[in-house]
## 1
Amino acid sequence: MPRQLPRLTGRPVMITGAASGIGRSLALRLNRLGSPVAVADVDATGLKQTAASLRGTVLTRVLDVSDAADQRKFADEVRDWLPAPLAAVFNNAGVALSSTVLDADPEDDNWLYDINFHGVVNGTRAFLPILVGQGEGVIVNTSSVFGLAGMPYQSAYCAAKFAVRGFTDSLRQELRGTGVSAVTVHPGGIKTNIVRNGRMRQDPEGRERSKEEMAASFEAIAMTTPDKAAQIIHRGVESGKARILVGPDAY
Ligand code: NAD
C-alpha cells in the first residue's frame, strides 16, 4: 500500500514560536494557503502582530512551552477549536545562548534546555494524543544544523538540538503503523531574531558578548529569509521527508 503523505495545505496546524521568525512565516504562509492556524508564543506583543495578519479560523495563545501543564491545557483548547483534523504540530519555539563550555552559567543552560528540549517534549506529549486519535498528522520538531554537528560556543544549544533529533527519531519509530509521523527540521542561517540577537537570560554584558559570538558563528553560513525557510519546511513536510534541512545545502 502506498505510504500516505502528510498534507498541510488548507488544513489546521498548530505552531509555537509564532510571534516572530520562522514560526511567524510558517503561520502566515499556511494561513494564506487556507489553513486554520493555532499560534502560540511567550511573546504576547509579537503574537498579536502575527495574529493581525491572519485570516479565517485562528486561535492565538500566550504560552511558555517549558510549562508542561499549560501545554496540555492548550492542547485541550486546540482540540475544542479544531474545525477539521489537525494536520501538523510545529514545536518550533526556541532560544539561543552563546558561551564557552567553561564560562557557561548552569542556570542559563537549564533555561535553554527547558525551552529548546523540554518545550519540544512537552508539546509532543500534549498534542500526540490528538493525532494518534485521528490516525493521521505529523509532529514537526525544530532542531538545527547544530543538531547534526557541533559548533564552538554553542554547546548547550547543540546538546538540546541533538536531543530533539534523538527524541524525534525514536518517536518516529514508535509511531510506525499509527498513521502519524514525526519529522525534524534543521535550519541554519535564517535571518531571524535568534541569529541577530542571540539571547542571554539575564546579564546585559553577556548579551552583547553573545551577539558577537553568534554573529561570528553564523558568518560562514549563507543566510536566507524566514519566508524561504517556511516554504522549504512546508514542502519538506508534504514530501514526507523525515529530516528537513533548511541550511546552506537547501538553497
Ligand atoms: P526567533 O527568535 O525569530 O523565533 C523564536 C520564537 O520562539 C520567538 O517568537 C520567541 O518569542 C519564541 N519563544 C522563545 N521562548 C519561548 C517559550 N518559552 N515559549 C514559547 N515561545 C518561546 O528565531 P527563529 O530563527 O525563527 O527560531 C525558530 C526555531 O528555529 C528555533 O527553535 C530555533 O532554535 C531554530 N533555528 C533557527 C535557526 C536560524 O538560523 N534562524 C537555526 C537553527 C535553528
## 2
Amino acid sequence: VAKPDAIFVADDVVRRFGGLTAVDVDHLEIQRGTITSLIGPNGAGKSTFFNVVSGFDSPDGGTWSFQGSDVSKLPAHRVARRGMVRTFQLTKALTRLTARENLMLGATQQVGERFIPALLRFPWRSQEATIGVRADELLERFNLSHMRDEFAGTMSGGQRKLLEMARALMVEPTMIMLDEPMAGVNPALTQSLLGHIQALRDEGMTIVLVEHDMDVVMGISDWVTTFAQGRLIAEGRPDDIRRDSAVIDAYLGA
Ligand code: ADP
Ligand code: MG
C-alpha cells in the first residue's frame, strides 16, 4: 500500500535458502514517523527481511530505498550511516565489555570504523569524547547509568535488551528496526521498553517493530504489516488487521 510520506520503499525483495523462499515481498512501504509492526508466524521471514534490507544479508533480488535514495547495494555500516539501523533478535552485547564500552563500540561498528576496545578507556580523540557523551546520555535515558562500568555479562536479559536498543540509537538514526525487543523480558521491563519506543516515535523517529505479542502490537502500532511464508499478506490499522481473515488464517495455519 502506498503511503503519503514513505521513508522506506521496497520492491520485489527475494531471499532464498536452497529450495526455501524465505522472503518474497512485492512491495512494502513504511510511513515516516510511525510505529509499524511486522507480524507473522514463526518462520514467516521477518528477521530475514530485516537482515536483507539492513545490509547484513544479500538478497536474490530486489531494490529498496531509504529517504529517497537507493540503499539496496550498500553494506550495513553505510546503511546505518544513512540513518537506518536495526537490532537483533538475539542481543549482541559483548559480555567482557562494560555497558558503556558496548555503546561506544556499537556506534563505531555500525558506521564501519575500526576501534580497538582496549583503547576505549583512553578516549583522547575528540570524536571518542563525543561518543562517550552520547553513550552516557543513552545510559541515563534507559536507566542503565548504574551499570555504566559493569560488564555486560553481569546484566540481566532485560537490561541487555535495553542496552541493545541504546546501542542502535548511538548513531542517532532516523529509522530503527527492532527485532523482538521484548522477547524474554519481564512484564515491568516490557512496559518500560514500550514507553521508550513510543517516546522515540513521539520525537519523530520511525520505528519498525517485529513483535509476536498481539496485545503489544495492537496497543502500540500505528500500522501493522503481516508476513506469512515470506510474503506480505495483509496490512492496515491494528483494528482492521485484528479482524483480517488472511491474518487469522496465517496464525491458525501455523
Ligand atoms: P521469522 O523471523 O519470521 O521467524 P526468519 O526470517 O527467521 O523468520 O526465517 C524465515 C525462513 O527462513 C525460515 O524457514 C527459516 O528457517 C529460514 N532461514 C532463515 N535464515 C536461514 C539461514 N541462514 N539458512 C537457511 N534457512 C534460513
Ligand atoms: Mg525472527
## 3
Amino acid sequence: MTIQWYPGHMAKAKRQMIEKIKQIDVVIELVDSRIPSSSRNPLVEEISSGKPRLLLMNKIDMADRQATKQWKEDFEDQGLTVHLVNSQTGQGVATIPDAVHKLTAARRKKLEKRGFRPHADRALILGIPNVGKSTLINRLAGKKIAKIGDRPGVTKAQQWIKVGSTMELLDTPGILWPKFEDPRVGLCLAATGAIKEELLDFQEIALFLLKTMLTHYREPLAERYTLEDLPELAGTEEDQDVLIRLFDDIGRKRGCLMSGGYIDYDRVSEIIVRDYRSQKLGPLTLEWP
Ligand code: G4P
C-alpha cells in the first residue's frame, strides 16, 4: 500500500526515525536495484546520525546485472558497504548478519576496552515504500511478521527478532518517503510501481520506458513486440514523432485499436508498463550511476 506524503507526514516520519535509530547500532538501507538512485531517500544520511550503514540492493532478479555491478562499484566508491539481495528467494540474505557484525567491530572493541560485554548487533531496515522491507524482514525472521501500513503515524509495539547468533533486528521497518521533486525520479518510481497507480499517467511512463529501451535495451524491446528495424533516437525534437510511431507499431501488433482504426494509446501504454513490471521485457534497470 502506498500513500501520498505530505509535509506533516514527512516531518513525523523523520522524527520517529531519529528516535528509533537511537536504539540501534547499524542502519540497513534498502533500495530497488532497478532504480538505485531514485529509490533512495536523500535524508538517509542525516537520519542515520553517523551510525554505520549497510546498503542492500534488493530485487537483483529484476535488474540488469551489468548495471547492478556498476551501481555497486559506484556506491562502494562513495564509501558504502553494499550487498546484493533477492529478498523474495533469499539470495544473498544469509550474509547480512556477518556484514552487520563487521560494521559494529569498532563499537565492540571500544566497549570491550572499557570492560563491557557488547550486546548483539541491533539493526533496523529502512527504505521507501515497496522496496521490499517487509519481505526482507520476513526472510531474516524466518516467519511472517505482520505488516504495518506505509503510514508514518501507524505504530505497533516493536519487537526485536533474533537473527543468527550476533544480530537483533527491529520487526518494524523505518518507512521513508520517496523523492518527489525531479520528474525523472517520479517516472522511475511510477514505472516500477513504487507510487500509486491513480497518481500516474500511463502514457508518460510508457514513453519513458520506450525511450530507455530504445537507448539501452533494444533487443528485448524488438523481441517482445516483434519489431523489425527499430528506430534510433537522435536527441532532437523529432524523437517525439519517432516514439509515437513506435507506439503505433506496438499498438497495431497488440490489436489496441479503437473504432475507426485509431490506436488506443491508453491500452498500449498500460500493456508496456505492465510488461515491464511483470518482467516480460526482461530484467531492466532504468538508471545508471
Ligand atoms: P515494503 O515493505 O518495502 O513496502 O515492500 P514489500 O516487502 O511489501 O515488497 C513489495 C513487493 O516487492 C512485493 O510484491 C514483494 O514480494 C516484492 N519483492 C520484495 N523483494 C523482492 C525481490 O528481491 N525480488 C522480487 N522479484 N520481488 C521482491 P507484491 O507483488 O507487492 O506482493 P506479493 O504479491 O509478493 O505479496
## 4
Amino acid sequence: MSESPKRRKPPQKSRPPKESAPDAEVLAPPTTEEREDRWNLRPRTFAECIGQNDVVDALKIAIEAANQRKETIDHVLLYGPPGLGKTTFARIIARELGVQFHGTSGPTLERGGDLVGILTSLEEKDVLFIDEIHRLPKAVEEILYSAMEDFTVDVIFGQGAHARVYRSKLQRFTLVGATTRAGLISPPLRQRFGIVRELRFYSEPELMRAVEHSAGILEIAIGEASSKEIAKRSRGTIRIANRLLRRVRDFAQVRSDGTITPAVADAALRLEGVDEIGLTALDRRLLDVVVNQHLGGPVGIEALAATLQEEVQTLEDMVEPFLLHSGLLARTSKGRMATEVAYQHLGVERVERSSRKAGQRPLL
Ligand code: ADP
C-alpha cells in the first residue's frame, strides 16, 4: 500500500480553459487511495479531522517547521486503542509533507531482509508507517535503530567466517509507528521517536459530529437525536460509529421506510448486540464473569481469558480499554475489579465477599 501524491495524474482538460476555473482536484479522477479513503470515511487533511486537538496541533507544528526548513519531521509514535485514527494521521502526515506513504505492520516483517528491502526503496522524506510496531521481531527491530538514528542499515552478505557487512546509506525518512500497547515497546525503540502521542477515546459530541459528517458523505438523512443514539453506543471510537451508521442505514431500508429515527437506530443496534451504552456481548460476558464468578474481583487477565475462551491480547487490546475508560472496570495490582457502575449496569446487587463466603452452602 503506497500512495504517490507526487505522481498524481494531471487533471483532465475536459472543459475549455476560459470557463470559471474549477478546482483541479475536482477534475482529477479519484485515485484508488482516494476511493479507499472515501469508502473508509477517512479524513484526508487535518482540517477534516475531528477531535484529538493536542495531537493534531503537535503534528501540524512539526510539519510546518519541517516544511519551512525543507527538512523531514522527527519520527512519530502514536499509541491508543484500535480505530482512533493512528493510520489516518500517518497518511495525513505524508500528504501534508507532500511525500509518499508506505504502510506495513510489525507481524508481516518476519525477517530483517523484509524491512531492509522497504527501507532501501524509500525516497527522500517519505513516510514509512509500521502498524502494531510492538509486534516486530527483535532482530528486525534492531535494524530500525540505526535506520532511525543515522539513516543507515547494515546488510550482511554470506555466512559464518565469510560473512561481510556493508553499511548502506538510506534517504532521510520519517517513521510513523503505531501501537495499541505503548508499554510493550522496548526503551531503545521508544527513545528514537521524537514525537510520542496518545490518541484518546472520542467524546459523545465528537462522535455525533463524526456520524453527521459520515452521513453527509454517504448521503444518509439523519437527525440530531438519531446521531446521538449512534454516538453514545460507539465505544468512543469513530470507526465503530461509522460501522454502526451503516448498519442502521441497512436496517432502516429493510425493516422501515428508510427513515432513520432514534427508535429505528435503537432497534438496529440491539439487533447488532450493542446495548444502550455501547457494550457488546463480549464486554457484557467479561463483566458478568468478574461480577458473578469472581464476586467482583480481583481476577487476573489470564483467568478471564481462559473462562471467556478468548486471547489475552484480544481482551487487553479490544475489550478492556473501553471498560476501564467508562469506569466499569478497575485495574489493580491484584487483577481486574468490577466497579459500582458495572453492578448498576448489569442490574446485579453487590454481595460482599465475606458475607457470600459465610452464606455459601457446604459442599458435603
Ligand atoms: P487506527 O489506525 O487507530 O486503528 P484508523 O486511522 O484506521 O484507526 O481510523 C479508523 C477510521 O476512523 C478511519 O477510517 C476514519 O473513518 C475514522 N477516523 C479516525 N480518526 C478520525 C478523526 N480524527 N476524524 C474523523 N474520522 C476519524
